[in-house]
Amino acid sequence: MDFAVPILVICGCFLHFVAAYENKTASQCFKVERGQPKINLNCSMINDGPGMILMTSAFHGRSYPRQWPMVKDLTKCNHIPGVPLKCSYCPEDCTDSSMNLAYDWTKCTGKEECESYVMQASMGRCENQYSDYLHVDYSCIPQKEVFDICDTTDKWVQEGSIRSPNYPNHYPTNQKCMCTLEAGWGTNGIDLTFHELLLEKNKEDQTCVDWLMIKNGNQKTKKCGEIFETKVNVPSRKIDLYFFSDDKDNDKQTFQYFERPLKGFWVNFKFTGANIRINCKKVPLYDPILSEMTRPTTTTTAATTDFTTDVTNVTTTIRQPIVKGDTRKKKVGRNNSVHKVGASQGDSSSASTLCTISSCIHLISAMLMMLMK
Fold first, then answer.
1. Which pLDDT tens digit goes with each residue over 190-218?
2. 3-class secondary structure, 133
3. Which of 314, 227, 317 is nearest to 263 (CA)?
4. Of the candidates 72, 79, 61, 35, the residue with the CA atom closest to the CA atom of residue 123
5. Rounded CA gap, 181 and 153, in Å?
6. The model scores a pTM over 0.90
7. Of 117, 106, 119, whose CA–CA distance to 53 is shortest?
8. Which secondary structure element, helix H or strand E, spans residue 361, and what is its range?
9. Where are the alpha helices (DSSP H) in 59-143?
10. What secondary structure does DSSP assign to 255-288, as a single string?
11. Taking 50 as the threshold, does the pLDDT of residue 44 lie above it?
12. Which of 337, 315, 339 is nearest to 329 (CA)?
């Protein structure tokens, strides 16, 4: 009898398996004994190291009246240990997620821990009744599975994420780095999910000051400004991601009336049906792609004149008058320049009389005095 033996070939490389993400839930009642209610998200310790917070969903809920029998069957509810049952989400509760605009959850994205004040709200989807609790779902992504675009990396992964240096804090200046993503096989294209991108943009012309560029063959696309939870499919098995920051250390910028910290970026990547090789490194200054993308834009303009002049260098051609009593003739060359009186015909060095403004004034004054005698 023949036996089929599965064989795993990984191109001579070790496959780096991604650790499982840990999904978590947090909930907070609005009626507290003292102070303003606040909710805590914590990814400081998952598996064998710290994680990064990635928001999934958030909504307000009303726990009363619950329609199911008054039997505390906790299996029907998403009960969180240490949290009262009335503050936990149950399937039959009326919920409303439309008030999420009141919270800026982006301040928690990428952090190990995050604390945010919450407030009760009137729920339009629940006949304008006031909410009893706020429910939050989030994931903890292992930090070790998020690659720094400026660190030297060469691994095969099933999927992964790339971040800017120092994320979720402000990225350093003068960064020039790149990562190459290349799938082993397939034609599905590489999926990129921008969990967060906050990079400086020029306020006047909206061009990118600091940027993340996606290079697919000859196609190049810069990303900057603010981007949250946006998916992009690049129809290729191989792409390059370039990161550039200039020498100006601006750590905040206003986007659509909200001032946000320039945290950098956190981008997830995967290729359906194949593993991906990720190769990251710093880019030298003479890199042709970087040089092309950072070259100042040139425009054709009319010629201009610089009116700032050093007066001491200004020279003027003077026609020297023949002094009364001087019988010598004035010799004029082909270029109509006037020869100095008393100079020989063959003296080519005195083809014209050039003097500075101050010496011209003295010469003219002397001639006027002679004429007045």
1. 999 999 999 999 988 999 999 999 999 99
2. strand
3. 227
4. 61
5. 11
6. no
7. 106
8. helix 357-372
9. none
10. ETTEEEE--EEEEEEE-TTS-EEEEEEE--TT-H
11. yes
12. 339
H/E run at residue 373: none
Tokens representing 88 are 């936990």
The token pair that represents 64 in the structure block: 């009363």
Per-residue pLDDT reduced to its tens digit, 248-282: 999 999 988 788 999 999 999 999 889 999 999 99
CB of 46 within 8 A of CB of 140? yes
Taking a C-beta distance cutoff of 8 angstroms, is the pair 158, 20 a contact?
Answer: no
CB < 8 Å & 24+ apart, contacts of 35-40:
36/117, 36/119, 37/117, 37/118, 37/119, 38/115, 38/116, 38/117, 38/118, 39/115, 39/116, 39/118, 39/134, 39/136, 40/113, 40/114, 40/115
CB 60 within 8 A of CB 134: yes
Beta strand pairing call for 264-270 and 190-199: antiparallel
